[in-house]
Amino acid sequence: MTKVSFDNTEVAFKHKSDAELKQAKWLFSLFNHNWIVKFGPGLTAFGLKIGLPIKPLVKKTIFHQFCGGETIQECSDSGDQLYQSGIGSILDYSVEGVEDEATFQHNLEEIKRTIIAAKVDVKFPFAVFKCTGIGRFDILEKASKGQLSAEDQSKFERLKGRLSELCQLAVDNKVRLLIDAEETWIQNIIDEIVFELMRKHNTTKVWIYNTLQMYRTDRLTYLEKTIATAKAEGFQLGYKLVRGAYMEKERERAEEMGYRSPIQPDKESTDRDFDAALTMCFENRDVVATCLGTHNEASSQLLSELMAKEGVALDDERFWFAQLYGMSDNISFNLANAGYNVAKYLPYGPVKAVLPYLGRRAQENSSVAGQVGREMSLIVKELERRSRI
Ligand SMILES: Cc1cc2nc3c(=O)[nH]c(=O)nc-3n(C[C@H](O)[C@H](O)[C@H](O)COP(=O)(O)OP(=O)(O)OC[C@H]3O[C@@H](n4cnc5c(N)ncnc54)[C@H](O)[C@@H]3O)c2cc1C
Q: How crowded is residue 62: how many other Cβ atoms within 10 Å of its Cβ?
């Protein structure tokens, strides 16, 4: 069995000019400075607010690395570039922070445009959204606890209505739709609603995908239970598998409020459950379609090995690998080059509104998180390779 190599930087960075690679190297080196990572997003937001002319600089640097543009139209070039290498894009309208009905309605309309874009253009194989983009966090929290007042109930119904509307639009237009996973204290109700929507819509094919965060100790049991129900009732499940993005916040809240942390005790346990969930989804591929959202090479390798062992076609539509734009191109481009289904989240939105997203990418690639070496060493390796030819 031939393994996919993730070390081929020529394939990984074919789409990047020397100048672009040098700029990426400079950017990732900035993430080594903790003060930049810590204060950069806040200072930038403040600078933009008071009208400093820094938008072009932000747009050319960190925004350019991790986002496709400010609008769907502006994402076209990045999307085309990825698609030339056989990689799809998942338009991710990444605005955060404003919680009023007008914003939720605006976000809903924008997410609908991403679904329509996916309908008409093969380079967008999925659409995606976050429930907190279309409804209030506190309403999801109260609904998860079953504590809604009459007034809350009507807000909750509106949120549910928007969620159903997006799913219906996706199904009507034959577009696969991913629903992101968020904090545990709002996730119960999201799981409940999305499970019902999968039961309703994933009858002959998987259109609706929920997300499972395998840093949670309870997710394998949940996965097993939902597979049993889907088999018994004759519908299908879609799962995006991720490790999980809110570890610190989850642990801090559990500690503060004195309940047992829902998060695995260590990285090894998260890795073990992630790979176990992947194996379970694979073995139950008669009812589960999987989108593997990870930058972890071992887990990506595991799926490619499972597929090879059972003779599953590389482009079987039940299996997708997904990474974030601007990260782990060595995984995305080498997998696509080998013939697998690969897509990258392509975040977009007004610069000011995507700053929280950019802040998280800076944090994730900082020396504090210990991951800056991963992207940087690949870029350096490719620059050295090019300098030798
Ligand atoms: C396409 C895509 C979609 C995504 N969608 C979502 C989403 O909907 N919801 C969401 O929450 N996240 C999402 N993420 C982010 C994801 O959850 C991870 O934070 C990120 O991808 C890093 O994990 P990894 O598998 O890539 O790699 P790795 O670097 O191997 O793993 C890092 C992850 O391991 C876990 N971890 C690290 N240290 C410990 C520890 N001490 N104890 C326990 N666990 C630990 C954490 O989850 C950490 O993020 C998405 C990521 C991608 C690529």
A: 24
Separation between Cα atoms, residue 274 and residue 263, nearest integer Å? 13
Residue 320 pairs with which residues in a beta bridge?
291
Q: Is 346 in the pocket of ligand 1 (CB under 6 A)?
A: no
pLDDT tens for 178-236 read 999 999 999 999 999 999 999 999 999 999 999 999 999 999 999 999 999 999 999 99
Residue 99's nearest CA partner among 186, 189, 11 is 186
pLDDT at position 157: 95
What spacing in Å lies between the alpha carbon of 52 and ligand 1's midpoint? 34
Pocket perturbation via mutation, ligand 1, pick of 91, 126, 242, 361 by most ligand atoms within 8 A of CB: 242
* pLDDT (0 to 100) of residue 2: 67
Express each pLDDT in 153-162 by its tens digit: 999 999 999 9
Residue 302 Cβ contacting ligand 1 at under 6 Å: no
- Stated as kind and residue range, the H or E segment containing 63 is helix 62-66
Residue that has been written with the tokens 């809903």 in this structure? 108
Burial class (CB in 10 A: 0-12, 13-18, 19+), 282: buried
Band of pLDDT at residue 53, cut at 50, 70 and 90: confident
Residue with the smallest CA separation from ligand 1 atom 44 is 267
Cα-to-centroid distance, 149 and ligand 1 (Å): 35
Q: Does residue 323 line the site of ligand 1, with CB under 6 A? A: yes
Buried b (16+ CB within 10 A) or exposed e, 315-324: eeebbbbbbb
- pLDDT tens-digit profile of 128-139? 999 999 999 999
Q: What are the helix (H) ranges across 173-296? A: 184-201, 219-233, 247-257, 267-283
CATH 3.20.20.220 domain position(s) in the chain: 69-348
Q: Which CATH architecture does the domain made up of 69-348 adopt?
A: Alpha-Beta Barrel (3.20)
In sequence order, the β-bridge partners of residue 321 are 292, 342
Distance CA 389, CA 373 (A): 24
